[in-house]
TrEMBL record:
CDD domains on file: nuc_hydro_CeIAG
A Pfam family hit: IU_nuc_hydro
Gene3D superfamilies found in the cross-reference section: Ribonucleoside hydrolase-like
GO MF annotation, one: hydrolase activity, hydrolyzing N-glycosyl compounds
Domain Inosine/uridine-preferring nucleoside hydrolase as annotated: residue spans: 7-322
Natural source organism: Anopheles atroparvus (European mosquito)
Record's protein name: Inosine/uridine-preferring nucleoside hydrolase domain-containing protein
Protein family: Belongs to the IUNH family.
Amino acid sequence: MVSRRKVIIDLDAGTDDAWALLMLLRGEQRYGYEVIAITCVHGNTNVDDVSINVLRVLTAVGRTDIPVFKGAREPFITSPVPRTSYFHGVNGFGDIVFEKQVDARLVKPGHAAPELYRLLAANEGRVALIFVGPLTNLALCIKLHPEVLDLLGAEGLYVMGGNRHGVGNTTRSAEFNFYADPEAAHIVFQRVPPTCPITVLPWETCLTQAVSLPMSWRLDELGGAPDVNEAVRMLNAIERKLYGDRPNWMPCDAFLVAVFVDPSIVERSERFHVEIELHGAITRGQMVLDHLKARSTAKPAEGGEPKENVRIIDGINHDAFRQLCLMAAK
């Protein structure tokens, strides 16, 4: 019997994280993988609320069997995102008042960073990693346990973040997840070995994908079906409050998870050498791509490994993504 692929998802639990998690959970049986842990990080809200939001989703769909670990509360150097700047509300879920409380004791003891190492070691590195928030937990894991780099293998690392053409959403030149902890992003892209393929879905791809997702489809068709699960009913109230007057729906993190769940969904991608800007007065946190691929920085390194260290996802199939969303909603 062939064992299923294993995957860990690290998130900062706003609403798009919730959709990403639902899609990942609902695809387990159909697409042949197993979610073995969920790790939480600062970002869309504080890490305590992140863990509660994750538990709300898991409780709603009866999956509290999956271990949840809290991780980094703050970035490496800079200050945490101010509460007044949280895009999804102070609690990450639109500040909706929930009638039912979840059991916070379901969060497992232990910090996410060493737990990542433990889980990778226990599975001999045969674990895919999906990161849809700031990369602090993975960078901490690398700093605490450098030997983890030997465990990162062909299952790959999937990241939602950064920008393809310098279009920002937090500053004029930086995307939120990377800007929230530029040093963490720098550590990850500098240290993860070529044996572990990195897939990045950047901000600009989210912008182009959202054009085909009217908010009316999200709320009335996807969320309005009579047989949607309890988590989607919860998200209906949150997203109607937060984004109901917007023309399009932009579930950034779910776009990335769709690429993991069904790789055939990718229509356009390209490989680049990627670095993170740390010092620019107006470009800190920007993901910089080496478009001049003939330069020495992009030529094969010693040992013959290519310097193009990242696959950038530029487009996914619109209809196939909708089908994955419908799967997640059941």
